[in-house]
């Protein structure tokens, strides 16, 4: 199985994972012919490099490089790059790497087995690895499975991943872990108090909906809210073609919270989980909401629409207002929300905002430990005036183009007034070029950092 470890195998081949400084010591443990073979291939233990060495009946093992200290700082999941090129076989790891650094490499191995083959035949590496003793292999496999779900959902094109299909994916997940799920669809959104979700999605023939999944009966309450804009044309403020090209990923927040939910439920964490996903398509027809419209949110706050392409914060606002009506120990929203966030930190890093400084520090440390990079941005109070247009309580798209990620986060915070601890992640959800264990395409961001932080965040 590409996302699983191999069963213990006494015939497994050694895979030495080493730094350049360890090369000669490692070669001294091989027989002379094997060592000379490795030297002859020019192997220097650079990051992601490998060299097999022969035995009496074929390949006897392989050496793989972690790289120099500089390379290690620049490259995540080095072992994933090695797996992608290793020949078929069952291997076991020989390395001095331990603890969370070892788990990073093992997770990289698992994630390098991911392929998105729904529309074209693709093959993954046939190399298999026996999990080292003392490693919680099942936990790593659960994390990899959650990440794979996120990637699959983002990679699926919008013609096959509309609001109904996103609902179906949530229902499948709920069924797998005996979670409860309810969905409010179409005009029922108006009747049940979700006017902005309805307004954003009403122009599409694919009905908007709010997905509400709940799991667990005891423990602290964690509420995850994910933006599920399955395709974003920009609405009447129509995007140019170049900006519309990746909009199948605009439900990346929903995909990421579903992947995180899968990890949490598979690991059986002792908490109560709620997942809220406003699922819509921002389309164009005669019923589309317009610039200068003023919408009244579930919270009662009025919102002036100054750009129909700033729709994600509108659907999230109604979902966050619902989350805020029931006590939670922590509310987290995740969304592919602003281009400003990408300009600020690029595609690799997930910027986030937190109302509690201790929570922010906990997530930052956890992200560093598990190689899931995150970076805190501020709720900068002086910018509050930028989202106050005067004619309504809030402006969904302040003019000027500055601090776009911060003003979006400030907007969302207005809808979480009863829950003291709230975090918002403005993710990209897309890997623009292939990297070890992270092929080009949809990718989860921030989920593993949150998962690693949960024991401290919620005192589990």
Question: How many separate structural domains?
Answer: 2
CATH C-level class of the largest domain is: Alpha Beta
Percent helix range: 25-40%
End-to-end separation in angstroms reads 31 Å
How does the overall form come out from the CA principal axes?
A: elongated
Task: Using the coordinates shown, work out and report the CATH topology of the largest domain.
Answer: Aminopeptidase
Low-confidence spans: none
The radius of gyration is: 24 Å
Number of helices: 16
Class per helix and strand makeup:
alpha/beta
Query: How much is the average pLDDT?
Result: 97
Largest sheet: 9 strands, mixed
CATH architecture of the largest domain: 3-Layer(aba) Sandwich
Strand content: 15-25%
Overall strand count? 19
CATH level-four homologous superfamily name of the largest domain = Zn peptidases
Task: Walk me through what this model shows.
The chain has 460 residues and is an alpha/beta fold. Helices cover 35% and strands 21% of the residues. The protein has 16 helices and 19 strands. It has helices spanning 23-28, 32-40, 69-74, 78-85, 99-111, 137-155, 163-176, 188-191, 195-201, 241-244, 252-267, 312-324, 339-345, 357-369, 404-413, 447-457, and strands spanning 13-18, 50-55, 58-65, 89-95, 127-130, 180-185, 209-215, 221-226, 228-232, 272-282, 294-296, 302-304, 330-335, 350-354, 374-376, 394-395, 422-426, 430-431, 441-442. The strands form four sheets. Strands 6, 7, 8, 9, 10, 13, 14, 15 and 17 form a nine-stranded mixed beta sheet that branches. A five-stranded mixed beta sheet has the order 2-3-1-4-5, sandwiched between helices. Helix 4 packs parallel to helix 5 (99-111), helix 5 (99-111) crosses helix 6 (137-155) and helix 11 (252-267) crosses helix 16 (447-457). The two termini are 31 Å apart. 49% of the residues are buried. Belongs to the peptidase M17 family.
């Amino acid at each position: 199985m590409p996302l699983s470890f191999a069963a213990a195998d006494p015939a497994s081949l050694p895979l030495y994972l080493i730094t350049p400084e360890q090369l000669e010591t490692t070669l001294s443990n091989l027989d002379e012919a094997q060592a000379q073979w490795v030297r002859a291939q020019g192997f220097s233990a650079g990051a992601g490099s490998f060299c097999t060495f022969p035995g009496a009946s074929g390949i006897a093992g392989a050496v793989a490089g972690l790289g120099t200290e500089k390379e290690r700082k620049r490259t995540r999941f080095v072992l994933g790059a090695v797996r992608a090129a290793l020949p078929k076989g069952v291997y076991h790891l020989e390395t001095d790497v331990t603890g969370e650094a070892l788990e990073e490499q093992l997770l990289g191995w698992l994630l390098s087995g991911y392929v998105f083959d729904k529309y074209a035949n693709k093959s993954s590496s046939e190399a298999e690895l026996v999990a080292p003793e003392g490693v919680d292999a099942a936990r790593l496999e659960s994390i990899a499975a959650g990440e794979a779900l996120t990637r699959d959902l983002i990679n699926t094109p919008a013609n096959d991943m509309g609001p109904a299909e996103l609902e179906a994916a949530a229902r499948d997940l709920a069924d797998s872990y005996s979670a409860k799920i309810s969905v409010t669809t179409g005009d029922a959104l108006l009747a049940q108090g979700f006017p902005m979700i309805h307004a954003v999605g009403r122009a599409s023939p694919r009905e908007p909906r709010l997905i509400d999944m709940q799991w667990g009966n005891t423990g602290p309450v964690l509420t995850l809210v994910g933006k599920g804009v399955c395709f974003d044309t920009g609405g009447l403020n129509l995007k140019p073609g170049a900006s519309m090209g990746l909009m199948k990923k605009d439900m990346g927040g929903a995909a990421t919270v579903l992947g995180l939910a899968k990890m949490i439920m598979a690991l059986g964490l002792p908490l109560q989980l709620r997942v809220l996903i406003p699922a819509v398509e921002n389309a164009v027809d005669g019923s589309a909401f317009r610039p200068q419209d003023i919408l009244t949110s579930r919270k009662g706050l009025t919102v002036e629409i100054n750009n129909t392409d700033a729709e994600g914060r509108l659907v999230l606002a109604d979902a966050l207002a619902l989350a805020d009506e029931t006590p939670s120990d922590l509310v987290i929203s995740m969304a592919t929300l602003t281009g400003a966030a990408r300009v600020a930190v690029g595609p690799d890093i997930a910027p986030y905002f937190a109302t509690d400084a201790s929570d922010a520090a906990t997530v930052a440390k956890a992200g560093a430990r598990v190689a899931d990079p995150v970076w805190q941005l501020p709720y900068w109070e002086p910018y509050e005036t930028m989202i106050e247009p005067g004619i309504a309580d809030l402006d969904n798209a302040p003019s000027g183009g500055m601090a776009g990620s911060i003003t979006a986060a400030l907007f969302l915070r207005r809808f979480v007034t009863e829950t003291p601890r709230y975090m918002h992640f403005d993710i990209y959800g897309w890997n623009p070029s292939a990297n070890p264990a992270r092929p080009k395409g949809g990718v989860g961001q921030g989920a593993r950092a949150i998962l690693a932080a949960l024991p401290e965040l919620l005192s589990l």
